[in-house]
Structures are given as C-alpha cells and as structure tokens.
Amino acid sequence: DLQVEGAKDVEVASDAAKVQQILTNLFSNACKFTKNGVITVVAKIEDNQLLISVADSGIGMTEEQQAKVFQAFVQADSKTSVNYGGTGLGLAIVSNFCDMLGGKIELTSAPGEGSRFDVSLPIGPA
User: Fold this and answer.
1) pTM for the whole structure
2) What's the CATH number where 72 sits?
3) What total of structural domains would you count in the chain?
4) pLDDT digit string (tens) for 45-55?
C-alpha cells in the first residue's frame, strides 16, 4: 500500500533536480525493501523548510547498519546487494544533496519494523 500526504500545488525555490533525486532515491529504496507492507510519503512546509518523510514497513536496519548506510558503495550488509540488488549509492547521493542544499536527513529504523527517512530542506518563495 502507498499513502501520500501533505502539501499539494505549492511552489518553492530550491534545486528541483536535486529535490527530485532525493525523493526518487528514498521512494525507490522504500519500494525495494518493502515487499508486502505500507509506504508512506509525507511532504509539508513549516518555518521556511520543506519537510519530506518517507516511511516503510520493510525489513528495517540495525543501529550498526544505519551508521554506514549513507556511505558511498556501502549497503546495510553483504547480503543486501545479493538479495535486493543496487550499488549502495542511493542514500549517499541523498545525504550529499541534502548537505549541498543546506538541509539534513535523519534515519529511524529497527530490524523487521521498517525505516523512516526525514529530510528537511531550506526553501524560499517561488
């Protein structure tokens, strides 16, 4: 199941290509690691910040896996690339783009319970 909530038809000033890539990578990961379950995408604007949350009820990660998941060419563990594919670049790109845009990303996850990525990006009026 997919649930999408939040701001609609709101224009903001930011790097559209980078914001789109952030969303694409987070949503792609949620789909990849959630075979049966729920993915929720929420976008809203608060205090000149674009807040994006992508949460899933997928496989989740340990604290050790979370500590390295934003590093380039690193996946949660050695079995991940075999079982799910991928290069280990998606979340590294997300983290890098968040930094470039002056924002941040936070991860909350637990094995067997899923993951939640919260992105906050500064914005200006369109």
Assistant:
1) 0.86
2) 3.30.565.10
3) 1
4) 888 899 999 99
